Amino acid sequence: MTFRVENAPPVSRPSGVMTAVGWVLRQLEVVSTLDALLPWDPAQCRLSPGTRLLALMLCALFDHTALFRVRHVLGHQDLPVLFGPGVTADAFNDDALGRALDKLAAARPAAVFHSVAAKVWAHEHVPFETLHGDTTAVALYGTYEAPAPEILQIVHGYSKDHRPDLQQVGMGLVSSPDGIPLLGDVHDGNLNDTTWNAGVIAQLQDLLPEETLRSILYTADCKVVTPDNLLAMERAGLHWLSRLPETYDAAQTLKLRAWAEAAWDAPAPISPRSRAAQYRLCAFSDVVLSADPDHALAGLRYRCVVVHSSALEARARARQQRLLAAERAAIAAAEAGRPTFPSHQAARAAGAQVLSRLDLRYHAAKPRTESLLVPGKRPRGRPRKDAPPPPTVRRYTWRAEVTPPDAPHLRREIELRSTFLLVTNDARRTPRELLGIYKRQQTAVEIPFHRTKALPVAPMFLERPERIRAMGYVLLMAYVAFAVLQRRVRSALAERGEHLQTYDNRRTATPSGQTVLDHLGDIHTDVLDENGEDVRVIKLTAGARRVLDLLGIPLAAFASEPGPPSHP
User: Fold this and answer.
1) Domain count, the chain
2) Which of 170, 185, 328, 340 has its CA 20 to 30 A from that of 388?
3) How many Å is the Cα radius of gyration of the chain?
4) Maximum distance among all alpha carbons in the chain?
5) What pTM value is reported for the model?
6) Separation CA 171–CA 453 (nearest Å)
7) Does residue 388 sit within a domain?
8) Is residue 376 part of a domain?
9) Beta-carbon count within 10 A of 340 CB
């Protein structure tokens, strides 16, 4: 098969995303690993399960779609290049894809995902230095019957999407700082983060050699900071980093101590962005999390870093000003339209009752009575023309006597709200290095969750919890390709000292994975018949050609057909 290349903008639906991502997934041995681990018979199967699951991964990244639309989306792609000669879109109907999900569900999908991730880590030479773990919830529409206890529980739980009306499942990831997953799972919708982290600690002990386990730093949110989890990590020799929950007495004590001692280092940003937040740090060693001598953590000492953020301070000041203005408005509204009373006591009691309902936080307000003369009532009936006006009578009303908030109290609130605490048992890294590692939690797990949360399938085609669990792992494997594309481009740009142009005309040295996909979307392939031979005409822009060069993907990948699937 021959091909030629033309520099031209795409003229129809692009096929570069699927072809490039499919080439990377095959290079990472994702398809061959799935075929080796999932049960299937080449004599009975038209396509291998790895090939069909590859189709789901490509559609998840290319176009979030329902299961029954996969073959329609693939009908516009260059299927021989994607899946091999003779493959048509009808091979990816919803029944065939469902059977592939069943094979994954029956083969311990968490172990399968780890095998795939381990191959990727080895191929991409991802260093075992820090790991980041976190969970999220994925809301599902529809009604699901309660399965057996050992099967995935689709239930109502704490909704991080603020949709408590929907049932959900949970997803967890343990990734490198640049978002390459090492462990992943799809778990019950009501599993809490504390229990999930305990399971991760046990998995890391089982999967990693002791030397590697003791050299890494595991970073998680504050739910990992429980006596059971801390003792488990202590026994395993695992170094960890987290945010200290405000429920610990040490959190408030160390914040007050940091501001009292004022031993902050010089403010500096973590991000290279021009308007990045400035951070000041104050470190403490030999911190005891519990003063109770009978507490499980009584004999353990930790390092704590009090972090002051300029961005948090700005938000705290704005919040405080809004609350102060709201209290002043509430007091003014309470005073408006107040009635008069026949005595001081009645006016004071009414004012105290109104002010007690305001629930003031900053201001103190108490009623102050005032006397005033008001016209008396006229007698009944029509008054005579020469009748004198009714005599005035003395009545009483109240006003709010407001004591302004205490300035030291306002300042102390700003100080406490603009700081947070990091806690760790790691003595090797500096406080600023620890903060930098903790701030990478966003790129390590939060962005992956953003890419994988919306299940691109209709519940009517995934009516069984086993298939939903399997589909969750397919989405995690799709994100592996997304993360690898992003990491490769960023690493290549850093090595060359170059930047990449985005679609909104920005130059960046750290483009997102979506920017990479956008450039790959500018590749289009036309198949022409020239003298009885298929010739592929690859049309692409200069930006797309540069991204292929950064990724190390040859142009021949858009014209060569993959080999037959492997089977043990």
Assistant:
1) 1
2) 340
3) 32
4) 120
5) 0.84
6) 8
7) yes
8) yes
9) 17
